[in-house]
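Protocol step 4 of 6.
Sequence for ADP,ATP carrier protein (Fragilariopsis cylindrus CCMP1102) entered exactly as in the expression construct, tag removed. Do not edit the line below.
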Amino acid sequence: MKRIKSIHSIPKSYFFYSQLFCPYIGYSLARPITVALFTSKATGYPGSPGAFPFAMAFVSPISVICLLWYGSILEKHGPRGALERTTIACAFSLLGASGAIEVAQRSNAVLWKTSIPVVKLISGPLFVFRESYVQLLTSQYWSFMSSVLTPNESAKWFAPIAGLTSISSVLGGTAVSYLSERLKLSGTLACTSIALLVSLLASGKAYSIAEKNGFSPKPREKKKIKVNKKQQKSDQHNGEDHEGVRGLVVTARKLFARVPVLKALFVEILASQSLATLLNVCFVASVAKTIPDDTLRAGWVGNFYALINVFSMTLQFAVLPFLMQYIEPKDLWRFTPLISLGFTTFQAFQKNPTLYAISASLLVMKVSEYSARRLLDEMVYVPLDFESRFLGKEIIGVFGYRFGKSVISLSLSAMTSIFGQFDLQTMSVLSDLAAVGWVRAAWNLSSLVPTRKEAQESYDKNSSKNGKNR
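Step 5 output, structure tokens:
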């Protein structure tokens, strides 16, 4: 069967409608639930101003552990096996946390010889895990698409595919209030794990279609080269072994040196996530202060993110596919962060920013991240090789996104310890400075992003080298 016929069958497969649909529904349920638990008087840390930055500081280490685990599974079992195993592990981790929260709340259990509720010891790690697991899984779904679509096809399909994820996020976000009133917060969290398990059926169908038609993503076979023990020890001493954090750093450094656009993308993600973290800190502090009731707060946060996805969906279906026919990706890279800069500047000039002013800045940032940035980000990987799409993408997606958040969170925790708690206006000024950094990083990245014609030529060159299995 010819490849182009197989590619055209992909939009009709379960992959586009379920493999991404279910995980995004689950995450849209998990996000407001974990925020509500973390900021609740009964289950979280509302009286500790530094709790949120402190928790975010742990996201990066957990993400590194997830990344090392993923790399090991990818090497042993390939992309399909890695997706199946990581999905199952994340689903049962969330299900276990849900059960533990329910038991702890019913029994009013406290830590041995203290008055600390056990549920508080669950809500903190759960919040960190929720921040870490989503990128680990979604990067694998998008890596698959980057492998089976050409640059021209990706420009056509990525925006509406992302639109489907926005639809699922809207459904999940708006369902939070309904489900939490009937199943409580712990029961609603369990629905996330169910959604992930359902996605396994869709991912299995997608990979089966790809394998049947000969375009399943596979790495190039490495030639076995005999080396003596002395040379092997020398290679390991110089970082040629790929074990642990050191091996990950070596791998990333070599990959970034070979593919400069990935290094620029990594820096851009660090900058954008620094802004996202600062706005999130403002948002969490403001929403906890403004809406004290746990269930109402969970519903409000769910509806807020649903609204974000409504705007994202509109752009993904009605605007971006049309726009990408007339402008180059590099031009959109330059324009996107400028909108956020305008909103954060307005927020920074407010003496006491309201929840709505802060929410507007976060909404604009998230809409651009979910629509334009998601499209542009994925288009970068399409013409690249297997290592860039599956290992490089995970390094950037899992570690890059979370490292930016952790660095800012650690910095905020340190500055809070030295100077005291920052007010919302100060945090807003810091957010505006982060927006300026994002603009600069995006501009530098845009100079390395190829035109659509150049991307197609690069894709054709890689395909001729590696054959059908990219």
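Step 6, annotate. The chain has one domain: 3-215+245-466.
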